[in-house]
Amino acid sequence: MRRLRRQLDHYSSEWSAQACRWLDWKFQVSQHPLLSVGIAAAAGYLLIPGKKAPVRVELDEATRKEIVKQLQIQQFKEPISQSPAVPTLWQTGVTIASQLLLRSAINYGVSQIDRLMNAERTVTETESPETMHSVYHEIDPHSSLEHDNDIHLYQRT
Description:
Blueprint: H1 2-23, H2 25-31, H3 33-47, H4 61-77, H5 89-125, H6 129-139
């Protein structure tokens, strides 16, 4: 009886694991990729509605003439719409020239800013020997003024 219960427990856990695998869609797609694509295509085909038949309206001659008459009256009341304006050669040339001028101005401004920033950097890099001596003392506070000839080792390049 115990052996039968153990076997039932073993089989039930195995069946449970198998049921979880069967219900796991990622596992099924990895095991059957072509079948999964086919099912997805069939579902998409069935879910997308088909084209509806066009509605046909039957009009008698008097109604059709009245509609045509109203459309003609409406056409003369509204101004005739023109096609979208096509730029002339002059307008195209002005547009291109203005874009070139704008780009040139931006490049000139960037170069001036870069020149000013490089000028500030060179001013801060060229420090006096006294400043370098204080930097040297910050690095080695036990040094004396006798080591002034070693200052060139700590100067920035």
